[in-house]
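Bug #77: duplicate submission created two jobs. Keeping one. Sequence:
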Amino acid sequence: MFTNDHDLPRVSVIVPVKNGAQKIGGLLDSLMQVDYDREMLEIVVVDGNSSDNTREIVLRYPTVRLLTEERPGLNAARNTGIRNSTGEVIAFTDSDCIVSKDWVKKIVEDFGEKEVGCVGGNALRFYDDLISRYCDESLMPVMRIFTEKKTLSKVKPPVQYPAGCNMAIRRSILAEAGEFDENIEYGFDEDELVERICSTGHTMVLDPDLLVSHKHRSSVRELLKQTFRYGRGMSVLLREKGLKSIFSKWILLIIFGLILWTALLSSLSILAVLTGSLGFLYVFSGLLVFPFASLALFYVYRTVVYRDRKWKRVFAYPLMDVSRFVVFVFGSVYQFVKSYRKRRNQ
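Kept job's structure:
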């Protein structure tokens, strides 16, 4: 337990980055401003062989340690940062984030009980454009958003676990839980570690006041590309961990639901054509429109609650929600087929 200023632990902030020249300066500026004893804080940037001038920007900050990791993947960079840092508490954020001034202090406060193995907080939008607002306001937020502080003994998909750009772990826990699994890529990599940490009997704290600002994707195309990668990551997790992970069971349920929905719509359309019955066509149309209509009503309610008169969300958000859901599943199926073919050809 860390009970007073004399007990403050040493904190290591690990930042994995590749080609982040346009954004990492803002992050490092914010880290220079955090309200924490500088003698008890170290900042380690792990560069993945950037081809832009990321390294040159990092070197402008003399108190920041710069490492290079030639192996691909976020987890390889994170593990390199862990092995080359000294903090009792290891915090993680990304180059496209801005941390709050009390970020480190809040992390330490959330580790107040010895049972706590990891903590996480909110990653809210930095910009206020339509896409950035959607990422926070969607029924399926791009980053996990917590409205109240919770202490949990296990992860609870789809949102009750930390995001990798705003999380911290206690170093001593790694001896039991292990480091990041470097075989897991594209997404859900940090979540798998959190699940292992909870399996050792430790808890996690989810704190909405532990805040970073995140520079979300700036276009629908970039957002869908990110979602496709997340889908691939879920498939990799399923391949690596099987049904031992709660996330694996979650994705199987999602894929099964979409397959069942598609099969039902296909059957109704075939029956409508073969029988010429308008009844089948009406049911088909109703089922096809139902997700969009339900989501639109949800966002009408949100708009009324927010009282901001931003009615564009009622039309745009349902389309993006459905698109992200479908792209996520396609990403999972794509990675599954790709992995299967690779194993078959070996």
